[in-house]
Amino acid sequence: MMAxxxxxxxxxxxxxxxxxxxxxxxxxxxxxLARQVEDGTLHLADVASRLSDDEVRRMxxxxxxxIINADGxxxxxxxxxxxxxxxxxxxxxxxxxxxTQAAGRIAGTPVAEVRQGPLPPEAMDEVILQQxxxxxxxxxxxxxxxxxxxxxxxxxxxxxxxQHHGQRLDVDQVKDLAxxxxxxxxxxxxxxxxxxxxxxxxxxxxxxxxxxxxxxATGAALSFSTTYALGHVASEYYRQGRRLDMGDLRALFxxxxxxxxxxxxxxxxxxxxQASGLSLDRLxxxxxxx
Length: 290
Known about the structure:
Layout: H1 12-25, H2 28-39, H3 44-49, H4 54-68, H5 76-89, H6 93-107, H7 121-140, H8 150-164, H9 171-180, H10 185-200, H11 209-239, H12 246-276, H13 280-287
Helix pairs in contact: 1-10, 4-5, 4-6, 4-10, 7-8, 7-11, 7-12, 8-11, 10-11, 11-12
């Protein structure tokens, strides 16, 4: 929660994500902490001092790095927060280098142009489904940095759909469509990174292994349904020459998200199989422009 506020600009979507996460956890201690973060009475050094061992401290750092890099490379304010966090955690820099470098590489990946000919409608439907499965699989990975890769995949999908319908797009237009539907990068990463962090704290304050696995599965379902709905809304939007207004787009998004929730149980096992063969390094290679 502190990481999500490190740039001094907590958007409404990001705040809703934090509020929703706190409500779903349903733990009074977490609710109290959220209030303290929001009113500025909780300090980083105090939080860090309560972490029990080096593994938990590394988890805290990786979760913070994932949230901070969700909407692009860390700003100066966010870099200052991470530097303060490193000092408060008291870990050796070498122990944190992998997380810092990997997050920066993913956050700095541009949206790649996808060169393809026109696809029949059923083929584009399959492209959307497979990308939704891939983003769901990222949430299953134990690597807390995996959530950062979800937004580049979603943006690339929208770009690909726009090309399919003969639209000339730039990355800002693609991001604007996602933002209009309430798909904030930071909001998604707050959910994804925090669910993984909580899942990793098996046996701790927030529940055991079963509870952690359930929260990670919830993250996979959320990412799958969001990507699925975004893809189909983009397809309708660009097919109709960008003539749909925001009200129409949001209504479509909710309709397709509901559809995705009925599909998810049928693809859940496929998501887990795909996650078993995924690595962030290989995925990053596929995101780079040719």
